[in-house]
Amino acid sequence: MDHLLADCLRQFDENLSYLLTAVVGEIGNNSFDHNLGNWRDVAGIYFVADLTARKILISDRGQGIFATIKRVRPEIKNDIEAIRIAFTERISGRAPEQRGNGLKFVKKIFEQQGWQLNFGSGQAVCHIESELTSFANQKKEIRGIIALIKF
Fold this sequence. Notes:
Blueprint: H1 2-11, H2 14-33, E1 45-50, E2 55-60, H3 64-70, H4 79-88, H5 102-113, E3 116-129, E4 132-150
Antiparallel strand pairs: 1-2, 2-4, 3-4
Helix pairs in contact: 1-2, 2-5, 3-4
């Protein structure tokens, strides 16, 4: 994160640099917070930033959104319901901790900045572009999460 921030500050203004680093940090940190001791196979995240193309990719092979949300909302039925809850409700997959603002914060920043996020987990995707947010099912399963940021 320190390298990303330094690289951003060399290329962009402070506001963009700090906001971008904050949302990347939130998504990446969730990978560790919600998967410690529960990785499917490969622990850690895949992270690549191409600041010239203004794209950042983050991926992990963790439990995914559904398994995380299901711990505190056992009644949820599928991936799309879980991903919608994660981006729109104040809920924490680390109950009883009073947290749960992370992905709502990410969504708000993307909407305000006019950035684009494609975020997938399980058989669901969330697409944010400016003030439009959509959720959809997909056939191919993403084991863990994948997030493509375009800013």
